[in-house]
UniProtKB/TrEMBL annotation, chain A:
<keyword id="KW-0687">Ribonucleoprotein</keyword>
<dbReference type="GO" id="GO:1990904">
    <property type="term" value="C:ribonucleoprotein complex"/>
</dbReference>
<dbReference type="GO" id="GO:0006412">
    <property type="term" value="P:translation"/>
</dbReference>
<feature type="region of interest" description="Disordered">
    <location>
        <begin position="99"/>
        <end position="126"/>
    </location>
</feature>
<dbReference type="Pfam" id="PF00573">
    <property type="entry name" value="Ribosomal_L4"/>
</dbReference>
<dbReference type="InterPro" id="IPR002136">
    <property type="entry name" value="Ribosomal_uL4"/>
</dbReference>
<keyword id="KW-0689">Ribosomal protein</keyword>
<dbReference type="InterPro" id="IPR023574">
    <property type="entry name" value="Ribosomal_uL4_dom_sf"/>
</dbReference>
<dbReference type="GO" id="GO:0005840">
    <property type="term" value="C:ribosome"/>
</dbReference>
TrEMBL record, chain B:
<comment type="similarity">
    <text>Belongs to the universal ribosomal protein uL15 family.</text>
</comment>
<dbReference type="InterPro" id="IPR005749">
    <property type="entry name" value="Ribosomal_uL15_bac-type"/>
</dbReference>
<dbReference type="InterPro" id="IPR021131">
    <property type="entry name" value="Ribosomal_uL15/eL18"/>
</dbReference>
<dbReference type="InterPro" id="IPR030878">
    <property type="entry name" value="Ribosomal_uL15"/>
</dbReference>
<dbReference type="GO" id="GO:0003735">
    <property type="term" value="F:structural constituent of ribosome"/>
</dbReference>
<keyword id="KW-0689">Ribosomal protein</keyword>
<dbReference type="GO" id="GO:0005762">
    <property type="term" value="C:mitochondrial large ribosomal subunit"/>
</dbReference>
<dbReference type="InterPro" id="IPR036227">
    <property type="entry name" value="Ribosomal_uL15/eL18_sf"/>
</dbReference>
<protein>
    <submittedName>
        <fullName>Ribosomal protein L18e/L15P</fullName>
    </submittedName>
</protein>
Amino acid sequence: MLGRTLAESFSTLRVQCRAGASTSQRCMASVARPESVIPVAQPVLLDLTPPLKQFKDQPRAAGNVVALDPTVFNHPIRRDILHLCVIHHLDGLRQGTASTKTRGEVRGSGAKIRPQKGTGKARLGDGQSPMLYGGGVAFGPKPRDFSTKLPRKVIQMGMRVALSAKVKERRLGVMTQLDWPCAKTKFLNQKINELGLRKTLFITGEDNVAIGLARAINMLKSVSATTVDKVNVYELMQWERVVLDVKAVEYFERTLGKSVPIAPLPLVAEAVESTSPEVVA
Amino acid sequence: MSSRVRVSLANLAPARGASHNQKRVGRGQGSGYGGTSGRGHKGQKARSGSSLRAGFEGGQTPITKLFPKRGFINQNQKTWGVVNLERIQHWINQGRLSSSPENPITARELLASGCIHNAHDGVKILGDNATELKTPIYVVASRASKSAIEAIEAAGGKVVCKYYNELALRDCLKGRTDRVSAAPTRREDIVWYGLWRNRGFMAPKTLKELGDLPFVEERWKALSQSLNVWRKQHYIDLKK
């Protein structure tokens, strides 16, 4: 199995599912229970990205790996679904305020411009006819709603495909926590350049982006931070890189995951002896 | 479908065949819909804002008016999901259906095993090729034909006809046991399900013959007592 080969190659490998007790239950829920079911889905193992700021209680990124739900992060790539989601999003952004006046709305009298017969020219009624210069527009645009509907499950699949595409292209990272306590933009910019995380969208699973990070990142054009409930497929496609925190991973797995039996991760000797709160599925 | 090129906003496209160009009339001969825009030449149908109402035949009496109305539609009519005994026997032989006094054959088992495709207003057991039925089966259906009843009992089985209204049938098909199914309210149903010759679930003789079988419900006895009161009631002759 994949986990075992990784364990052989890294001597200090500790397989970490997610931090926190509640997640261990979620881990267990994804494991195949009945003996007759043979799990075929393997979890996706991703190296942890070094955090913006290392906190004492958070595990180190070096040598640690996060196990991701394959139904969310290893979904088959469906460009047509992404296309649907992107078009739906952009339709909704349209202002729809183009407006023209019809022949009934153009200012002018209804009097006949010239007699019906005798002038030798074409017959004409009022001066606002679309045939005439200064007349109304025939079938011109009117303010309307361009938004379209897309089934909720298609959008959910789009999210799964977008996240899986990012994982496949090695443009998705997971940090243990997203925070910048000193709130200084200059140092955040330096740190981002050091980590090579320009053109990145940071997605946090908290209710709000940490205030320090929010303030520091505000003026930086090449990066952005947002919360999980505000993310959509279009944003994921726009940004070159995406970095999630562990809570965001949990959120996506909870809302987008399918209840499919997933192969359990193998027990690693170091993991049993270590003190940090990792759980092996 | 893996690709070496990164998936980005620049290379998304709809699935092949998913989108089709809009038909735009009156935009030149090359499109095939130029000029008269698919309306032909002159006439009422070529004019803007014109259309004939559906079924209009130019003044000739339309087909919907030629023939007189006839009859009425019986709102109480039921469509039965019918199944013959030979089909049930065939299913039992294949191992797709089984019955026991604890788990009788009901509409749910018949639908789930594919013996019937749709339960409609209830299941009726019919007796085509009834001689094929060799095994004793325990059946609870909405109705059963006379020959079906004879054949089932000749083979050593039991058949009971139970009243199912819409909700009760749905609960039976879904396997819901938390609700109590309603008793019959219409006089026709009360009379029908109280007769032994139909093997109605409220007929006293049916309940006596079934005795202690596990699928017999307590409620049937209670309903049998309360809904068969009319059989003993008589009009009081005031003249005497």
